[in-house]
## 1
Amino acid sequence: MAAAAAVSLRGAVLGPRGARLPGARAGLLCGARPGQLPLRTPQAVSLSSKAGLSRGRKVMLSALGMLAAGGAGLAVALHSAVSASDLELHPPSYPWSHRGLLSSLDHTSIRRGFQVYKQVCSSCHSMDYVAYRHLVGVCYTEEEAKALAEEVEVQDGPNEDGEMFMRPGKLSDYFPKPYPNPEAARAANNGALPPDLSYITRARHGGEDYVFSLLTGYCEPPTGVSLREGLYFNPYFPGQAIAMAPPIYDEVLEFDDGTPATMSQVAKDVCTFLRWASEPEHDHRKRMGLKMLMMMGLLFPLIYAMKRHKWSVLKSRKLAYRPPK
């Protein structure tokens, strides 16, 4: 029994082994007997009509497609409204030493940053989720952290008489709040509520880059920009008008280790401290990631050998059909 012929996209009829059949034309019905009138299939006719587009028509269709895509893009661009956030100055990306895959936080900088927070920032901003015990082993010893905690008075109680009393702080105490409630904080800052700094680098787009740029980005407002009393111009702040006065400047404090307290140094140290406060597991996470990579490097050859041993039988198996005699 003769094998059926196949119709190719080039318009020729091919035999069972790809050979062109003599006298065959595109559009013949597969399997026609010799001497039978050739029949045209709708599929072959449609294929031949599509392939027969002139060059000019193809160019015209391509141009229409490009014109439609450009018009759609222009409509989307004109429809999108201008956002007020587009007028903000985006902070640059600074080369922080802890951004490497295997780089840890600068713990000396964390210690100086805590000193900046304690002497400069803590008068307005709280850190409700950081306790003195968190400083142990990071930037202070246990004795130093206990001494820092005992410097503050913490309300405790009630005592045996049912009254609240004040006591020296302990390692388990969290950093004290500068204000008893949000209303008192707003009243002391002309209606503005100072944000909590516990997770500030994770809560702001740009992280420590934004905080550093905000602290060092105060400048005079440009010509034509007027601010009401009590506001300061900062291009990195949303709306460019911020109620916080410039908090740092050169020699705003003296570091215990003798590091010059320039504005950029102070901003860098407090940003490193705030990054640690927002992500205290930073160093541990990278250390565990390195251990996992080393473990995977040791286990990969074993897993690959097991895979080859288990699946090689199935992947190399050949099935042969033997017709019955």
## 2
Amino acid sequence: MPRRGVVRAGISLPEDLMEAIDILAKRKGYKSRSQAIGEAIRVLTAEDQWESYEGEFYAVISFVYDHEVADTANRLIEAEHRHTGKIISTMHIHIDERNCLEISVVKGDRSTIEGVQRDIAAAKGVKILKVNTFKV
């Protein structure tokens, strides 16, 4: 989203929330409290767009799986091939002797991204899966 300028706004927050924002801003290296609050608002609005918008998104689907579990690796490869043209990039990392981390970038509308997510999650050895979406 192109930056158009800055508008000054005042907000009232509970003291503990303001302290949490200050701690987060310092820990994450934000230059100001306003920058941290602005980033939080961007994340919230991106989630809202995902829930309500029907256009095109990019998604990063990250998942850890045990490649020793019943044909998991082959099922994941089949899922990726079913979504050729939708999965635009993949990175594979060997965590240890059994576990792999895979990161796939998907481009498409909400139903496309959810379809890829479902196919990956359906593979038996998938332990954890996270999806981050971006409306550009």
## 3
Amino acid sequence: MIGFARYLHTNGGIMYNKDKDITRPKDLIGKRLQYPGAPGPDGTAIAKTMIEADGGTFKKGYLTPVNNSFYHTDALLNDKADAATLVFENFEILEAKSQGLNVDYFSLKNYNVPDFCQLIFITTPEKLATYESKLKRLIKVTQKATHYINHHLEDAIDIYSMFTQTDVTNQLNKDTIKATAQCFTNDLSMSSDYYNDLQLWLKEVNEIKVPITPSLYFTNQLLFSRYMKLSNTPSLYLNDVHPKNRTHDHLT
């Protein structure tokens, strides 16, 4: 599989009940952590990285895994867990607060976890080549839709609610839609540096064995009309010029 456009970027991480004496990631030690797939490694990998970024030490058994599927708010509301991951600012945080929970969250990006609360379009390398023109049209439609949402939010909400039969008189529904609308991205591209950092973190927490070239699983080639032309010509970037061969012309 290969990604070819990002269309949503929200904030998220570990939601915690403030009434459980949790104020920083180190306070998660000894607590119950809800995450889908528990007691598998995914949720504890996020917590481990955050705890260590906060100056703590993490060892196996320092957390009690809880599996309440994707029902994070329910797990905290019914005292099945003290914290939950992965949650999104535009969804679970709003949901939990609407139900009276005293919650906050530790953001991935603030505690050394790659900021992977993003949604992308994916396909196969074969279909990327075969359906290039159709995929480019999909990208254009996505960009136009995002532009419309940004400039006509209330109209966009009405269209969405009619199409999905969502009751927007419900305040939580309305708040969630509005918060999510702010997460659609104008820039659909992503950097190979981001994906390299993500895969190095996955290797660090033993989720993968060997990193690969990031361009093999995400490409910007459908987003920029001169992408292929540039890749087929000698690079003019400063970093590609050997220091010994740099002249004044390279620096201006």
